[in-house]
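Supplementary notes for students who missed Thursday's class. We covered one full example, reproduced here. Read the sequence, then the structure, then the short commentary at the end.
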Amino acid sequence: MKTEMKDVVVKVSGKRVSPTMMVVKSGEYEIITDKIGGEAPSPVEYVLAALAGCINIVGTLVAKDLGISIEGLEVNVEGVINPSKYMTGVGERAGYKEIRTEVLVRSDADLETLRKWIKLVEERCPVGDNLANTTTVVTNVKKV
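Structure (token representation):
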């Protein structure tokens, strides 16, 4: 029997290293962000990467729950975004208009089982949930 877990606080901390680059620390790891087409992936590209990674992790958990074997998995993610709002302050919303995923699975499970699997993956993926639903974001600014 599975039980509900308690909330977990996840923290990262970023420091600016240039007008477009930031080093973000997550535990013992560093993530470097830059503008689109810069020297590192942009934050909006990391959103897509986070979705792909989450599909992999949750996909593994769901496969175990369903008793199916995943021998190979490839996740392709693309998003449509208009940079006008964040670049100029004018235009449509700043975020993605649409995000599309393609999940290529090598498994002994039949296609109907894999469709059930991916539906459960979509329901349980926290990154996908945050992209598909409104999440409260509270921003505080402090002068240092």
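Commentary. Helices lie at 43-66, 84-88, 111-124, 126-132. The first strand starts at residue 13 and ends at 16. If anything here is unclear, bring it to office hours.
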